Amino acid sequence: MLKIKNLHASVEDKEILKGINLEINPGEVHAIMGPNGSGKSTLASVIAGKEDFEVTDGEIILENEEISELEADERAHKGIFLSFQYPVEIPGVTVTNFMKTAINETRKAKGLEEMPASEMLKKIREKSELLEMDRKFLSRSLNEGFSGGEKKRNEIFQMAMLEPKLAILDETDSGLDIDALRVVSNGVNKLRNKDNAVLVITHYQRLLNYIEPDFVHVLLNGKIVKSGTKELALKLEEQGYDWLKKEAVND
């Protein structure tokens, strides 16, 4: 699904990613953990094509296609979805209209006709029920006046509607209470299947109690310094990152 080879990336001439190698297969969930400033959100942004970052070396390959020269919207049309840590409020654009536009733009990029209104409404109904969303929510302006939990649930609703090949969740758990975390995680778990993949970026092991990863990777100073299973996340929760920093220095 995704292959990253020796990825280096900078912002304003400051190198942040210093040689990332990562492979994600269809059906897998990978978690990336690391302290503040280690490059986790930068990696998410670079994969999604955010223009603030410059890729200075390496490759990003989605389903055997090199995509690092593509714009963010082109990557989205190819199936990359990024859930933001701080979703933006867009007054005057309803959740429903936003979703209709996003879906039809992706269809247009693939040479397909617009989705018929009846099919769109059916899909909206199905996905909102799946995520236990109040239908009134869909006629509100996108994220305007939403609580933190509502914003995150809305991001997962967008993911459900767009059915991406690779979903990147950038600190989706930040600011969520346990109930909101459970609802968001349940939504992600219901959307997992053998044909898509999920990359979860988080500070905390608690999210991984709900979204069980196949692999956990630790990012330190722009490099993946350790990979393992969920047990690695539990060890980090207990012991922090100092032991890994010492290992990295010794290496």
Features:
single chain, 251 residues, alpha/beta, Rossmann fold, 6-stranded mixed sheet, 4-stranded antiparallel sheet, AAA+_ATPase
Describe the 3D structure.
By secondary structure, the chain is α/β, with parallel strands linked by helices. A hairpin with a 2-residue loop joins strand 1 (2-11) and strand 2 (14-24). Helix content is 37%, strand content 28%. The two termini are 31 Å apart. The chain has helices spanning 40-48, 72-77, 95-109, 117-130, 148-162, 178-191, 230-239, 242-250; strands spanning 2-11, 14-24, 29-33, 54-62, 65-66, 80-83, 90-94, 141-142, 166-170, 197-201, 215-220, 223-228. The chain has one domain (2-250): Rossmann fold. Pfam families: ABC_tran. GO terms for molecular function: ATP binding; ATP hydrolysis activity. It comes from Mesonia hippocampi. Keywords: ATP-binding, Nucleotide-binding.
Question: Helical proportion?
Answer: 25-40%
Radius of gyration: 18 Å
The whole-number mean of residue pLDDT values reads 88
Query: What is the CA-CA span between the terminal residues?
Result: 31 Å
Low-pLDDT runs of 5+ residues are: none
CATH superfamily: P-loop containing nucleotide triphosphate hydrolases
Total of DSSP H or I helical runs spanning 4+ residues:
8
The CATH class assignment is Alpha Beta
In order across it, which strands form the biggest sheet? 6-9-10-3-11-12
Question: What is the molecular shape?
Answer: globular
The biggest beta sheet reads: 6 strands, mixed
* Overall tally of structural domains: 1
Give the number of DSSP strands.
12
